[in-house]
């Protein structure tokens, strides 16, 4: 039952991951990210998603250390950036992230993008398998992997990824990828679930929102959860962080989910994973 901020999905290795967490993409290191994460933890959030390239791991770690929430109750995700992919460089990048966060282990570590250079993400994955086997990460996964990237990885790995974090919202509902991940026991996770605010005035969504006396953002996040997709909306405003979490007291009908699914236009606001290779 997804009925609270502490509700979790169980990854294929048995690790429990919260269905809803806080994303900190484009949140400035220092006071902004510290206040954002602390507000979320005080409100009951138990999952925080950062990345090396966000350059705010130190602030995330500071917020965690200053909160009253025990470390083992917080699910912390970070990601290895493209320029650090490869076996040895991934191991080094992981150490750097852990040091900045001030943590002894990570709950989830992701390959940020499928760098297409020959075998690059496969070498990166081998390093992640080592870190996992060494007990330094509780779960490992990928981000922005399309089906063909996953097929390549599954054919060449010892441990299959537990999570695939991708751009996912009503304009890009990734139906085939979602079905592929479900079939292979890979938990799909949404980044930019609110399309950076681009859907907040969408008529279908506003109509459903009015019915439930909710915001369009809350309708989208509820749609994520009912589609069995983990979601990590970002905000630096405490009232918005609270609002994003207030999605557990109602349920969309199958007809409403169908209407939202029908908004798909395969429209991205982020890069296409097959064309993105920024170092």
CATH superfamily: NADP-dependent oxidoreductase domain
What composes the largest sheet?
A: 8 strands, parallel
* Beta-strand percentage range: 5-15%
Domains counted in the coordinates: how many? 1
Low-pLDDT residue intervals, each spanning 5 or more residues: none
Shape: globular
Q: What's the alpha carbon Rg, rounded to whole Å?
A: 18 Å
Keywords: NADP, Oxidoreductase
Protein name: Aldo/keto reductase
Domain NADP-dependent oxidoreductase: 20-264
Family: Belongs to the aldo/keto reductase family.
Architecture overview:
There is one protein chain. The longest helix is centred in the middle third of the chain and has 15 residues. Strand 8, helix 6 and strand 9 form a beta-alpha-beta unit. The chain is of the alpha/beta class and 279 residues long. It is built from ten helices and ten strands. It has a single domain, classed as NADP-dependent oxidoreductase domain (TIM Barrel, Alpha-Beta Barrel). The chain is globular. Helix 7 packs across helix 8. 39% of the residues lie in helices and 13% in strands. It has an eight-stranded parallel sheet. A two-stranded antiparallel ribbon has the order 1-2. Belongs to the aldo/keto reductase family. Keywords: NADP, Oxidoreductase. InterPro entries: AKR, AKR5G, Aldo/ket_reductase_CS, NAD(P)_OxRdtase_dom_sf, NADP_OxRdtase_dom. It comes from Halalkalibacter kiskunsagensis. This is Aldo/keto reductase.
């Amino acid at each position: 039952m997804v009925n609270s901020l502490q509700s979790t999905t169980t990854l294929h290795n048995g690790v429990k991951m919260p269905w809803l967490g806080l994303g900190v993409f484009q949140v400035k290191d220092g006071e902004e990210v510290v206040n954002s994460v602390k507000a979320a933890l005080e409100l009951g959030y138990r999952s925080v998603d950062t990345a090396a390239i966000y350059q705010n791991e130190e602030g995330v770690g500071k917020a965690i250390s200053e909160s009253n929430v025990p470390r083992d109750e917080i699910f912390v995700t970070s990601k290895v950036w493209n320029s650090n992919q490869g076996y040895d460089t991934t191991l080094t990048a992981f150490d750097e992230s852990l040091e900045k966060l001030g943590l002894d282990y990570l709950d989830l570590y992701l390959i940020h993008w499928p760098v297409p250079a020959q075998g690059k993400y496969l070498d990166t994955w081998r390093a992640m398998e080592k870190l996992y086997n060494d007990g330094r990460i509780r779960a490992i996964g990928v981000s922005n992997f399309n089906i063909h990237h996953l097929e390549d990885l599954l054919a060449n790995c010892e441990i299959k990824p537990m999570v695939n974090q991708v751009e996912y919202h009503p304009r890009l509902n990734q139906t085939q990828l979602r079905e592929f991940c479900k079939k292979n026991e890979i938990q799909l996770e949404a980044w930019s679930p609110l399309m950076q605010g681009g859907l907040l005035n969408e008529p279908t969504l506003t109509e459903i929102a009015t019915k439930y006396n909710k915001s369009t953002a809350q309708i989208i996040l509820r749609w994520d959860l009912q589609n069995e997709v983990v979601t990590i909306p970002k905000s630096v405003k405490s009232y918005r962080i609270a609002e994003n979490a207030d999605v557990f007291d109602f349920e969309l009908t199958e007809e409403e989910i169908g209407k939202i699914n029908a908004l798909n236009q395969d429209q991205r606001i982020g890069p296409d994973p097959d064309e993105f290779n920024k170092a």
